[in-house]
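Exercise 3.2. Students should predict the tertiary structure of the chain below and write it as structure tokens, then compare their answer with the key that follows.

Predict this chain's 3D structure.
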Amino acid sequence: MLDVSKEKLNEKVDLSQFKSMLFTFNKDRFLTFNKIMSVFGIVFLVVLFLPWTQNVQGNGFVTTLEPNQRPQSIESAISGRVEEWYVSEGQIVNKGDTILHISEVTDKFFDPNLLMRTESQITAKNFSLDSYTSKVNALNFQIEALKEERKLKLEQSLNTLEQARLQVQSDSIDLEAVKIQLIIAERQFERTETLEDEGLKAVTDVEAKKLQLQNSQAKVISQKNKLLSSKNQEINAKIEISSIKASYQEKISKADSEKFTALSGQYDTEALMFTLENEFTNYQVRSGMLYITAPQDGFINRAIQKGIGETFSAGTKIVSIMPINIEMAVETFVNPIDLPLLHPGENLRIIFDGWPAIFFSGWPNLSYGTYGGEVVAVERTISDNGKFRVLIKQNPDEQKWPEVIRAGSGARTIALLNNVPIWYEMWRQINGFPPDYYQPQESNNNSNKSQNTGK
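Answer key:
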């Protein structure tokens, strides 16, 4: 059997009659292809050594630089029902302009004369408070008068007591004097009686001395009674002093009790009056909330609550307003790996949605339609989307941003970093390495200054 596996195809078949084989075996075509690939290879090698500007890109949107310039929703602090609209969507309003009138839906505030009635209650409580104050003052005067009267009465009683004490002393001295007289009368009677027994004195002399003795005895008894009477007067004076103290203390205590009762009523009335005044102020403030006004000059974006008679609860968003005088900014988000490369004061390039731009990330000098920005703040905590937020304002040294951009429009940001060869950037991208880290020029200058100062 003939083995055909070792035989070549071109030896058995004439391949020249096939067009595809003629195209394959054409040596001129091989030479052209090799030349083209060689040129591409040389160009590729040259391009690998061209400079490339590293960059950090982020996607965000247009916002405002100040928080009070951002779109806000006006909320109602109270529950209510829509009664009348005074603005329409797209209208420009000034600060304080009335946007919406609402009415109460809480039964506590239905009374249209609520403020007047509350004010009348406050007036009545003021009169009651004045009455309590007058009563307290009158009781204070009464207490002072009782204390003064007690003082005078005690002085009078003390004088009476002192007089009684002096009278007791005087009667005691008189008693001692009549006792001495009695002793003398007894001696004289005894001597006279002895002389009469001896016949030297007459009986009449004895009787006269005896009478004198009896008079002295009577004087002693009388003086003792007088002394006891004086002592009783002293005791009565002491009793009178105790009675005066007890009587006036009772009167003063009673006046103090009435005074404290009046003070208690006064304080209760003051507390109730303060409560009424607080409610009156709350009612006044609440009545002002029935007219929702513009907090600042702005543009009515959208009416969230619609129609007449629609009810809503407290804290419900009523209308959305956009301030007029604002300073635009861009809020962008960058990956955590690129965060250390961004610093406040750094310049960035921005592409706004809707504005044609031709951007070459590696050659910014060839980019068109981009606008300059400056980093204002870099957030210290990560956002919900897993990236860090960076706030960018307009660069005053470059072309102004378009005036017709609106808050919420999309924006793409590019931060330009170091210049490196293209081959290095390709190697970095393939290996997932971050761009070259560096510090702002100001930081380097400050560090150099500190080092020079240390030297």
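Discussion points: The first helix runs from residue 9 to 12. The helical segments are 9-12, 19-24, 27-48, 114-197, 203-288, 422-431, 441-454.
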